[in-house]
Amino acid sequence: MSDKNGKKSDIISVAKAARVSPSTVSRYFNHPELLKLTTRRRIEKAVRKEGYIRNRAAQTIHGIRSGTIGVLVPTIDHTIFAEVVQAFSDAVAEEGFTILLASHGYDPQREYAILRKFLEHRVDGIALTGLDHDEAVFQLIESQDVPTVLMWNYAEDSLYPSIGADNELAGQMISQHVLALGHREVACLFAPGAGNDRAKARSRAILNTLAAAGVAVPQDWQLTTVYSVSESKRQAFALFSSAKRPTALICGNDILATGAIYAAARAGLKLPDDISIVGIGDFKGSSEFEPGLTTVRLPARRIGRRAGMTLAAAIKDPKADRTGAHCAPELVVRGSCRAI
Amino acid sequence: MSDKNGKKSDIISVAKAARVSPSTVSRYFNHPELLKLTTRRRIEKAVRKEGYIRNRAAQTIHGIRSGTIGVLVPTIDHTIFAEVVQAFSDAVAEEGFTILLASHGYDPQREYAILRKFLEHRVDGIALTGLDHDEAVFQLIESQDVPTVLMWNYAEDSLYPSIGADNELAGQMISQHVLALGHREVACLFAPGAGNDRAKARSRAILNTLAAAGVAVPQDWQLTTVYSVSESKRQAFALFSSAKRPTALICGNDILATGAIYAAARAGLKLPDDISIVGIGDFKGSSEFEPGLTTVRLPARRIGRRAGMTLAAAIKDPKADRTGAHCAPELVVRGSCRAI
DNA sequence: AATAGTTTTGCAAATGTTTTCATAAATTGC
DNA sequence: GCAATTTATGAAAACATTTGCAAAACTATT
To answer: Where is average pLDDT lowest: A81-85, A171-175, B283-287?
Structure first.
C-alpha cells in the first residue's frame, strides 16, 4: 500500500507521477494496446518508481473476476488430497488463478461455513471434494451460480461436473482381483463412511463383489478404522493375532494397507506367503514397499489437473463444456497379493 | 451475486427489502449492537430472503482487512508441508482468516511472482517457508509492509519472525546420536540444497558434527537425491550393493530414510543388525515401520499452528509481539539404529 | 493548409461498501 | 406533557478502480 516513503501508492499517484489521468493508468494494465508506446513507457516507469501493485479488490467490485478459486478438501495433510490440491493449484495457476484453500474435516457444518466465506471473497469458481454434500451447500452454489466442480469421485449423473475416479469401480476391481487369485477367506479394513462418499462407495462395492462371488465376510472381519497408519496397524495386528486368520485383507485405501503391512511385519507374517494385503489408491510410495503393494491406482494428479482445467475453462467461458471426466482407476499388480 | 430470481443482491437490495437505508444494513453486519432489535430482525429476514452474501472485495477497498493470508510453500504434496499448512490453516481459520495457498517448486522467480499476486489480493499477512529468499522478495514485503512470518526453519536473527525448528541443531543431534552409538563408517543421503536452506543447514551440520568427531565421510558416501522415496531407494540400494558398506546411513529427512529402509529390505539387509538407518523429521508413519525409524522430530503441526497464531496476532495488533519461536527438535530413538 | 479519419486520452459516472456527521425518534426526568 | 438526553437511522462522501463517451491529438489525404 505504501512505497518506501510511506505514501500510499494507488492508481492516482501513479497517474500523477506519469502525468496522465487515472483512466490511462487503468488502461495500461487492462488494455495496453490502446496506449501510445511513449505513454506506456512513461507509466511503466511511474509504476516502478511508486512501487505500485494492482488492487484486485477494487477491480472485483466492477464485476471483474477476482482471480481466485475456492478449494475445499476434507483435510490437507493426507497424501491423496495434498496431491490433488497440488495438481489443481498448478493447473489453475497457469490460467492466472490463485486458490483459497480450506479443510472441513468431514464436518458438513464447517463445509457450509467455509463455502460462505469463499463466496464472500467472490471466488470465481469452487472445487469440492466428493459427490455428496449438504442440501444447503448445493442451494448456496445454485443461488450464487458460481462455476463448480466436484473432485475425486466420479459419477455420470452428479449435480455438478465430477472429475475423479469411479470409487465403486475401484472397489469392484480390487475385490475381483483378490477373488481371481482364489481367495475365499477375506477380511476388510475400511475407513469410516460418515461424510465420505468415496469410502462408502468403496466398501459397498467390495462387499457386494465378494458376496456376488459367494464370499461372505464375517462381521468380525469387517474392520473400520480412521485414516491413520497407526490405527490401522493396531487393528490389523489384532486381526492377525486372532485364532483364525484370513488369507487376504482388502484395505479401503493405501494408508490403511500400509498400517496392515507393518502389522504383518510385527506379527511375523511374510507377505505374500502368509497373508495377502491389497489397497486402493496407489499413493506415492505404495510401489516401493518390499514387496510392492497391489492396489488400484486412482490418478490423483490427473484428477487435480483435469479438475483445475475444467473449472478454469468454465470460468473463462460460461458456455464451455461442463461435463465431468472419468479418470479411470487401474489395477496395479505388485507382490503383496499372491494366488492361492 | 444473484438470488433465485436472478436479481443481483447487494446491500441496497437488502435495504429496500427491509425498508431501511443501506447504511443500516452495513451496520447490521459491522456494529449490530447499534441497531434496534426490531430493525435487526427485519434486516435479518431481508438478508435471508435476498440470499445476500457480503462482499469482502468492497470492504477491502475501505482499508478493511481482506481476511486472507498468503501461504507460500515449496510444494504442497510433501507430508511435511501439508502438515504445516493444515495446522496453519486451522489456526488462522479460528481467527477468521482464509488462506491463499501457492507453491513455488523451489523456484525463486516463481516465489516472487506469487508473492506479487498475493499482494494484489491485498492479503493481510504472508507466511513463507524457510529463511532464505530473494532480495527482491524481502524488498517487496518491506515496501508493502505486510506482516510476515518465516516458517519451518528457525534462526534467532532472521529478517522476519521465524517459527520453526533449528535445522542445524537437528542435523547435529542425529549425527551425535549415531556417533554415540559407536558408528564410524557412516554414509549420508541428502536432499539437494539449492533453494532449500533447511536441507543445506542439515547436511552442513551433519558433516561438521561427524568431522568434529574425527569421522570423515568419503565422497562416494555422500549421496544426494531429490525428495522421493523411489529415488532414495534406488540410490541407497546402489550403496548397499557396493563392495564396502557403511554401518550407518544418515538421511536428510524421513522420506529419504523410507526409501533407504525399503532398499535395505530389497538388498536383504536386516535393520538394525546389518545396517542402521536414521532420518530427520519424524513424519507421520515414521514410528510405524518395523523396526521404527530413529529420527529427530521436527514438530510440523506445532510449527504451523504457532506460525498461524503469531501471524494472526501481528495482523490484528501491529504492536503485537513479533519475535519468532523455536520449536525445538527432539531426538526420537526407535529401533532402526543400533549400537556397535 | 484544410479536411476527414483515426488514434489516444480525459472526464465523469459507476461499482458495493463503510463511516462521519447530522437529524429524527425514543426515552428519561421532572 | 415538555425539555433534555440518549439512541437509532439516513444522507452523502469516501474508497480504488473501470469504462462509455466525448474531446483532443495526431495522420493521411487532398
So the answer is: B283-287
Instruction: Give the CATH number of the domain where residue A96 resides.
Output: 3.40.50.2300
> Shortest CB distance from A144 goes to which of B53, B60, B90?
B53
Contact list, B57 vs chain A (CB under 8 Å): 56-58, 60-61, 66, 121-122
What range does the domain containing A17 cover? 11-54
Mutation target to probe the B interface, by most B beta carbons within 10 A, among A71, A77, A111 is: A77
CB within 8 Å: A288 and B233: yes
CA distance to A266, B19, B251, per residue, from B28 (Å): 61, 13, 58
Q: Within 13 A of A222's CA, how many CA atoms are on the CB side?
A: 11
Give the pLDDT confidence score for residue A6 in this predicted structure.
53
Are B165 and B329 in contact by the 8 Å Cβ rule? The answer is yes
* Spacing of C-alpha A94 from chain mean position: 18
> Among candidates B284, B283, B293, which has minimal Cα distance to B262?
B293
Nearest chain A residue to B268, by CA: A290
Residue of B nearest to A234 (CA): B288
Residue B115 CA to residue B152 CA, distance in Å, equals 18
How many angstroms separate the CA atoms of A91 and A302, rounded?
10
- By C-alpha distance, which of B232, B212, B45, B109 is closest to A285? B232
pLDDT at A2: 39
Which residues of chain B have a pLDDT value below 50?
Answer: 1-5
So what's the pLDDT on residue B7?
Answer: 60
Which has the closest alpha carbon to B177: B294, B50, B63, B59?
B294
What does the pLDDT read at residue A285?
A: 83
Strand C neighbours with CB under 7 A?
Answer: A 19-24, 27, 34-36, 38-39, 58, 61-63; B 1, 8, 10-12, 22-23, 25-27, 29-30, 52, 54-55, 58-59, 61-62, 64
- Classify burial at B71, counting beta carbons within 10 Å of its beta carbon; exposed 0-12, middle 13-18, buried 19 or more: buried
Q: Is the peptide bond before B291 cis (omega within 30 degrees of 0)?
A: yes
* Structural domains in chain A (count): 3
A110 and A83 inside one domain = yes
Same domain flag for B152 and B85: yes
Contact call for residues B144 and A1 (beta carbons, < 8 A)? yes
Residues in chain B: 340
Same domain, A305 and A160: yes
